[in-house]
Design a protein that fits this description.
16% of the residues lie in helices and 33% in strands. The protein is built from three helices and ten strands. The strands form two sheets. The protein has a five-stranded mixed beta sheet with strand order 3-2-1-9-10, with helices on one face. Strands 4-5-6-8-7 form a five-stranded mixed beta sheet, covered by helices on one side.
Length: 161
């Protein structure tokens, strides 16, 4: 099972489809800012499940700020992160994910890509998939309950990547 995870696209969604074609995921995830950019993914890949949450820049969105879903037998906790104070600490996020029973935690908001491993959880922030000098997204593979995550550039420098 492969996930492609995007966050903080901020209206710059032109290259998302290219990323999806490159990694060929089974599930798409958009972690907010701008929630409406997830519609680009939905239109382009209608057969792929899409999970999306609203971020702090999604002012009039009625979408939830967090959700859980199952992927490859692992419970995933997905949120934008602003309601959990992720710019200063991951404690609140990790606490909520732990009590949800999550093995994989996805969040955005900080525009800084990172992968952390804490007891029982893999925690992934794909970075900004739309803003900044080096936009990125996450590819996450789940096989037999094992999670392997990596951060990829939205626009690969090498076309054969």
């Amino acid at each position: 099972m492969r996930l492609a995870v995007f966050s903080d696209t901020h209206g710059r969604s032109q290259l998302l489809a290219q990323c999806v074609r490159r990694v060929q995921p089974d599930i798409l995830v958009h972690l907010g800012d701008y929630y409406r950019d997830s519609a680009v993914l939905s239109r382009e890949f209608p057969s792929l499940p899409l999970y999306a949450v609203a971020g702090n820049c999604d002012f009039i969105s009625r979408e939830d700020g967090a959700l859980t879903f199952s992927a490859g037998g692992v419970l995933v906790f997905a949120t934008h992160g602003h309601r959990y104070g992720v710019k200063s600490t991951l404690d609140s996020l990790l606490n909520s994910a732990h009590f949800a029973g999550a093995g994989l935690v996805l969040y955005g908001h900080t525009h800084a890509a990172r992968i952390d491993y804490v007891p029982g959880m893999t925690v992934v922030n794909p970075g900004s998939s739309g803003l900044g000098p080096d936009p990125s997204f996450a590819q996450i593979d789940i096989r037999e309950g094992k999670i392997a995550a990596k951060i990829l550039p939205v626009s690969p420098k090498d076309p054969y990547m």
